[in-house]
């Protein structure tokens, strides 16, 4: 293929700056074409390399920016999670404060009642009797007040005697539940408050007979059933170990004993979880 516009020969003359003689180089057309082709190819390679390098530098900067944004987003997400945890904790504390002040927090729609009558069949109340309030929900002007919110949980056995029936959760068929400890002692044995609190219910119940309900701090409530006589009334403030009544066999009791319930945040728990050992004898 003929080379366009290339002279048959190219003459290069080198003239040194001193007195040395000049030199002349003659390039034929084919060699000149090869030199120019190589030069063009090198130029193309340099341009391609510079373009590719510029693209890589740009993408690297974009990747670094995206990584920084991802780290910032992760930090913000962790802060949001921490705030949610703090809000949940504040809501729980608010519910406890409202409960201690005599305001029952709104329950979710369709939630089961927190009262013993709704949870355990053996604590059912007859329709003509005043409905039991959810455990720990005081009524009237006398609420437990700010002083009980952080009071210690109940930790005293209310009577000396023998445990004849332990706390038991319901089985898979919903049967066999026993929401309390039954403690046998002589008739008219004094009953003591398991901890500092306020009497949020005191009176007659068709199952428990004469009973007392005391709201303590930190979401704890204790219930004392089958009493012979009561020494306190609703709204009274009681100290730990203060007498609240005497042991009896009122209500649905086959023999004199104390039916002792402990509630925590609206659910019954085994009293042995917070009161160590066994009742004194």
Q: How would you characterize the overall build of this protein?
A:
The protein has helices at 29-100, 116-119; strands at 9-14, 23-28, 162-165, 181-184, 190-192, 197-205, 209-215, 220-230, 237-238, 243-247, 258-264, 267-269. It is an alpha+beta fold. The radius of gyration is 44 Å and the shape is rod-shaped. The termini are far apart.
Write a brief structural summary.
The chain has two helices and twelve strands. The protein has helices at residues 29-100, 116-119, and strands spanning 9-14, 23-28, 162-165, 181-184, 190-192, 197-205, 209-215, 220-230, 237-238, 243-247, 258-264, 267-269.
Instruction: Characterize the biggest β-sheet.
Output: 10 strands, antiparallel
Structural class: alpha+beta
How many distinct helices? 2
Tell me the count of domains.
2
Compute the number of strand runs: 12
The share of residues in extended strands comes to 15-25%
Q: Would you tell me which CATH topology of the largest domain applies?
A: Glucose Permease (Domain IIA)
* Distance from first to last alpha carbon: 121 Å
Instruction: Give the name of the CATH architecture of the largest domain.
Output: Distorted Sandwich
What would you report as the Rg, rounded to the nearest angstrom?
44 Å
Helix fraction bin: 25-40%
The sequence of SSEs as H and E is EEHHEEEEEEEEEE
Average pLDDT over all residues: 78
Shape: rod-shaped
């Amino acid at each position: 293929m003929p080379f366009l516009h290339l002279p048959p020969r190219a003459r290069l003359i080198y003239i040194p700056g001193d007195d040395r003689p000049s030199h002349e180089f003659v390039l034929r057309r084919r060699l000149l074409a090869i030199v120019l082709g190589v030069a063009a190819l090198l130029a193309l390679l340099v341009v391609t390399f510079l373009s590719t390098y510029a693209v890589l530098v740009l993408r690297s900067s974009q990747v670094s920016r995206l990584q920084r944004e991802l780290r910032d987003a992760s930090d913000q997400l962790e802060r949001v999670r921490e705030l949610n945890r703090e809000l949940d904790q504040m809501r729980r504390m608010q519910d406890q404060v409202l409960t201690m002040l005599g305001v029952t927090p709104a329950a979710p729609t369709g939630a089961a009642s927190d009262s013993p009558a709704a949870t355990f069949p053996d604590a059912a109340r007859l329709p003509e009797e005043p409905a039991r309030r959810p455990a720990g929900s005081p009524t009237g002007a006398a609420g437990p007040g700010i002083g009980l919110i952080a009071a210690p949980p109940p930790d005293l056995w209310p009577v000396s005697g023998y445990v004849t029936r332990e706390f038991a959760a319901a089985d898979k068929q919903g049967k066999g539940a026993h929401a309390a400890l039954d403690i046998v002692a002589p008739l008219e044995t004094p009953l003591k408050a398991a901890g500092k609190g306020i009497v949020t219910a005191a009176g007659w119940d068709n199952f428990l007979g004469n009973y007392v309900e005391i709201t303590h701090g930190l979401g704890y409530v204790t219930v004392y059933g089958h009493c012979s006589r009561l020494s306190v009334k609703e709204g009274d403030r009681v100290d730990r170990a203060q007498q609240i009544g005497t042991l009896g066999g009122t209500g649905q009791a086959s023999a004199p004993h104390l039916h002792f319930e402990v509630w925590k945040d609206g659910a019954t728990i085994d009293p042995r979880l917070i009161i160590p050992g066994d009742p004194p004898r």
